[in-house]
Amino acid sequence: MGREFTLTDAEGKTRSLEDFKGKALVVFFGFVQCPDVCPTSLLRASKVQELLGDDAERVQVAFITVDPERDTPEILKAYTSAFDPGFIALTGTPEQIARTAKEYKVFYQKVPTGSSYTIDHTALSYVHDTEGKLQLALRHEQTPQEVAADLRKVLSLH
After folding, report:
1. Residue 1 belongs to a domain
2. Would you put residue 124 in left (φ > 0), alpha (ψ -120 to 50) or beta?
3. Is 140 left (phi over 0), alpha (psi -120 to 50) or beta?
4. Which of 14, 24, 34, 68 could lock 38 by a disulfide, CB 3.0 to 4.6 Å apart?
5. Is 52 contained in some domain?
C-alpha cells in the first residue's frame, strides 16, 4: 500500500514518490469544491507546519485531486497555496488518479447534486517516512498537536 505513484504537479512536472525522499510526505486525497473535509484537513496541515517549527522543512504536504475534470493545475495551485505556499497539488488523468487511489486504498465516488456533483471520499491523510515508506494514516479527527507529535516520531525514524 502506498508504494508508488506517478502524477503531475501544478507546474506540469511529473512527480513520483521517489521525488520526495529525504522528507516526510503527507498525502491527502480530495477536491477543491469539497465543502468541509478538504479545507479542514489542509488548514490542520498548515497549523501542523507551524507547530513543527524548523522540522517543517523536512515535511512535504501533497494534495491529490480526485476531481481532475474540474481541478485544473491553476485552480489546484491557487487552492493549496492559500493554505501554505509550500504545499503541492498533484493531478493526472482519471486513470492515473484511480490507480493512485487504489494504491492507497482510497475510496472516492461522484454523487450527483442537482445540475452538478460532489465527491464522497476517504478522509485520511497518509504519512511516508523520509525513505518513502508508508508509516501511518492520520484520522481526520486528530488535532494539529497530535499530528505534529506523530510527524516528529516519523521524522526521527531515519
Report:
1. no
2. beta
3. alpha
4. 34
5. yes
Which structural domain, as residue segments, surrounds residue 59?
6-150
Examine residue 155 and state whether it is found in any structural domain, yes or no: no
User: pTM for the whole thing?
Assistant: 0.95
The domain total for the chain is 1
- Judge whether 48 lies within some domain: yes
List the one residue out of 72, 68, 65 whose CA is nearest residue 30.
65
User: Coil, strand, or helix at residue 51?
Assistant: helix
CA pair distance 5, 18, nearest whole angstrom? 9
Q: Residue 27 pairs with which residues in a beta bridge?
A: 62, 126
Per-position pLDDT tens, the chain of length 158: 888 999 999 999 999 999 999 999 999 999 999 988 999 999 999 999 999 999 999 999 999 999 999 999 999 999 999 999 999 999 999 999 999 999 999 999 999 998 999 999 999 999 999 999 999 999 999 999 999 999 999 999 87
